[in-house]
């Protein structure tokens, strides 16, 4: 005879599932908030010290690539030789070290594409907020259109930076700084607003 789970058991499974979903959402929220604050800081520094900041970003990227490459190589050398055919850490490490050296010694070339990369990041931030606007609309939150407008402006800023209509590099870099600050602030506000409305929605249902 089949055993039919009780209502308490079924409700317990639902509660566990909801708690797991909330834990995932909380981790995602924390990640967005941290990245938002990081964008604000980078944007402010870029706004007031554009040339120094881009050079610093290039050198930091070079150091990070070198550190990751060396750690991959060391990890490969310390691994079991019998697992070598399943381990691509050596190749990945060498590639990262070469990339780090190229970035370090060709910093000027890398600096020229940093605004493009940051423009893409700004546009991606806008796309993420676009989904938040859709989530709010699905929960029938009245101000979802405000988040939608914020996300569209974010995407437009990223696209403008990507195509670079500015006459000087300094103007471009300062505009990138403004875009990063806008993205960071709007990320933080939109994420906190979505989090609060999500809790209200779950309490209702």
Explain what the structure shows.
By secondary structure, this protein is an all-alpha fold. Helix content is 86%, strand content 0%. It contains six helices and no strands. α5 (144-163) packs antiparallel against α6. The longest helix has 42 residues, at 7-48. The protein starts with 6 loop residues before the first helix and ends with a helix. The mean pLDDT is 82.
Strand content: under 5%
The topology string of helices and strands comes to HHHHHH
Instruction: Evaluate the radius of gyration.
Output: 23 Å
What does the main sheet amount to? none
Low-confidence segments, given as residue ranges, are: none
Structural class: mainly alpha
- Total helices: the number is 6
| Chain-averaged pLDDT | 82
Global morphology: flat
N-C termini distance: 34 Å
Q: Helix share of residues?
A: over 70%
Number of strands: 0
Q: Concise description?
A:
With 205 residues, the chain is an all-alpha fold. The protein contains 6 helices and no strands. The two termini are 34 Å apart.
Question: How is this fold's topology laid out?
Answer:
Elements: H1 7-48, H2 50-78, H3 89-105, H4 107-138, H5 144-163, H6 169-204
Helix pairs in contact: 1-2, 1-6, 2-3, 2-4, 3-4, 4-5, 4-6, 5-6
Key words describing this protein structure:
single chain, 205 residues, mainly alpha, 6 helices
């Amino acid at each position: 005879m089949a055993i039919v789970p009780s209502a308490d058991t079924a409700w317990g499974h639902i509660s566990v599932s909801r708690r797991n979903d909330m834990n995932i959402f909380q981790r995602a929220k924390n990640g967005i908030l941290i990245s938002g604050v990081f964008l604000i800081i980078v944007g402010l520094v870029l706004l007031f010290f554009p040339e120094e900041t881009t050079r610093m970003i290039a050198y930091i990227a070079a150091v990070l690539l070198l550190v990751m490459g060396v750690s991959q190589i060391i990890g490969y050398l310390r691994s079991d030789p019998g697992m070598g055919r399943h381990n691509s850490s050596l190749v990945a490490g060498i590639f990262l070290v070469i990339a780090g050296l190229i970035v370090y010694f060709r910093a000027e070339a890398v600096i020229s594409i940093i605004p493009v990369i940051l423009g893409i990041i700004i546009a991606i931030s806008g796309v993420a907020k676009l989904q938040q606007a859709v989530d709010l609309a699905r929960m029938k939150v009245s101000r979802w259109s405000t988040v939608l407008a914020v996300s569209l402006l974010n995407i437009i800023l990223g696209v403008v930076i990507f195509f670079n209509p500015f006459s000087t590099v300094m103007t471009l870099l300062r505009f990138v700084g403004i875009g990063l600050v806008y993205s960071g602030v709007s990320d933080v506000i939109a994420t906190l607003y979505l989090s609060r409305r999500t809790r209200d929605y779950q309490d209702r249902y």
